[in-house]
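Hi support team,

I've been running sequence recovery on a batch of backbones for a student project. Most finish fine, but this one hangs at about 90% for roughly twenty minutes before it completes. I'm not sure whether the input is malformed or the queue is just slow. I've pasted the structure tokens below so you can try to reproduce it. Let me know if you need the job ID as well.

Thanks,
M.K.
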């Protein structure tokens, strides 16, 4: 048994235990004796599919159709590899959290840095969610062109249809009730609905593209990137944070595994979830770029505000934007839940659990919600937010920390081997 440093033992949460300790359920009361395989796949897929899917068509526009789709598939493969590293070293160190794995390798400082990265990543993602919701409801500007939102189309331009007003109403009457739950299990039905709405968006996008291909009105998309100067070449690298952010789910791997009836299924669950999500990503990117070509916006939802060139175009525009707007509203509290726990662990490491302290719970919730609201009103576009979080926190959580843990373990193993060989040589010399 590994003896933890005294600094770790003082924490209210052992670094090897989940931020929320697994609850001991009474099977006779709630009929729960562990999560099923399908339920785990569903939960992990919900974690993965969020706002990243909206920026992927723009990433494919930058890269060209062929390199773009290859990069999306490669992102899934690399994500599976990094998660496999985390799971392998979790078992080796008997850790039940991602921060526990990092803490075992790099101590309290490493665990703290990881939690900071998770907080930054989640705040960035929630800002992106609110930006997209604002685009859907109130519209957005792109290259001097105004793309109307749903509320502006339906009721015209008034003070109460502005971006600030609509996001404020959404925050007070949608987000505030949902983020007030102290148990993530309370959100299971809204999560199920959110996945269904994401599939509706992908299905409609693919359907519209197929109809236009059949009637011959679809233009051939650009297969390769358009490189006209050095600046256009370097611009290709701005797509990397988008691709990284689209697959980030590492902070939810252990909570899902901890609830499984058979934890040995986790590797298969990860593979199934990534296969499902990468299929949705490839379909959305392919058909979205087919539909809009070089006019694809940073937030592809904003493209669904005009004539699609097929019957019932206006109705389909509204259905697409409403379905994905509601999807993001329902995913928001899941990401916020993890954000609040990690931030509380950083700020109040010696306090009682936040769910037991009402004053701290609502104070942290209000401050975080205020920061996200301000960010959503002042960050210019989701592309800017994705680039910041994807190039810093997301890539650290998804790839740098798993690789660093693996590298450290490898170095320690080699040092152990060399030490053993040296001891054997000394014994022979004696």
């Amino acid at each position: 048994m590994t003896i933890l440093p005294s600094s770790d033992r003082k924490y209210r949460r052992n670094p090897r235990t989940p931020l929320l300790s697994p609850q001991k359920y009474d099977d006779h009361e709630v009929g729960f004796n562990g999560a099923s395989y399908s339920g785990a796949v569903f939960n992990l897929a919900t974690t993965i599919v969020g706002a990243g899917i909206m920026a992927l068509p723009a990433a494919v526009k930058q890269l060209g159709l062929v390199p773009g789709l290859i990069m999306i598939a490669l992102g899934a493969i690399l994500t599976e590899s990094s998660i496999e590293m985390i799971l392998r070293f979790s078992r080796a160190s008997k850790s039940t959290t991602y921060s526990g794995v990092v803490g075992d390798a790099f101590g309290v400082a490493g665990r703290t840095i990881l939690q900071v990265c998770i907080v930054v990543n989640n705040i960035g993602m929630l800002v992106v969610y609110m930006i997209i919701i604002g685009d859907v409801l109130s519209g957005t500007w792109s290259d001097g062109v105004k793309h109307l939102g749903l509320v502006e189309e339906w009721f015209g331009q008034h003070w109460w249809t502005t971006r600030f007003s609509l996001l404020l109403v959404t925050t007070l009457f949608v987000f505030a009730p949902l983020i007030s739950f102290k148990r993530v299990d309370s959100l299971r039905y809204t999560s199920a609905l959110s996945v269904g709405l994401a599939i509706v968006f992908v299905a409609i996008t693919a359907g519209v593209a197929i109809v236009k291909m059949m009637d011959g009105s679809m233009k051939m998309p650009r297969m390769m990137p358009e490189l006209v100067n050095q600046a256009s070449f370097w611009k290709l690298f701005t797509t990397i944070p988008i691709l990284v952010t689209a697959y980030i789910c590492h902070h939810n791997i252990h909570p899902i595994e901890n609830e499984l009836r058979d934890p040995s299924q986790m590797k298969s669950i990860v593979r199934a979830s990534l296969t499902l999500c990468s299929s949705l990503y490839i379909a959305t990117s392919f058909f979205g770029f087919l539909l809009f070509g070089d006019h694809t916006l940073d937030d592809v939802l904003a493209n669904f505000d005009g004539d699609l060139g097929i019957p019932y175009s206006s109705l389909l525009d509204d259905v697409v934007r409403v379905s994905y707007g509601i999807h993001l509203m329902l995913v928001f509290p899941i990401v916020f839940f993890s954000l609040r726990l990690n931030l509380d662990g950083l700020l109040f490491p010696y306090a009682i659990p936040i769910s037991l302290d009402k004053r701290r719970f609502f104070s942290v919730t209000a401050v975080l919600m205020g920061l996200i609201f301000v960010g959503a009103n002042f960050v210019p576009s989701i592309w800017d937010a994705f680039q910041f979080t994807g190039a810093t926190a997301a890539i650290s959580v998804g790839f740098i920390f798993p690789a660093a843990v693996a590298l450290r373990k490898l170095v320690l193993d080699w040092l152990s081997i060399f030490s053993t060989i040296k001891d054997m040589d000394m014994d022979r010399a004696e």
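--
Follow-up from support: It reproduced on our side and the slowdown came from queue contention, not your input. The domain at 37-223+242-247+264-428 is CATH 1.20.1740 (Amino acid/polyamine transporter I). No action needed from you.
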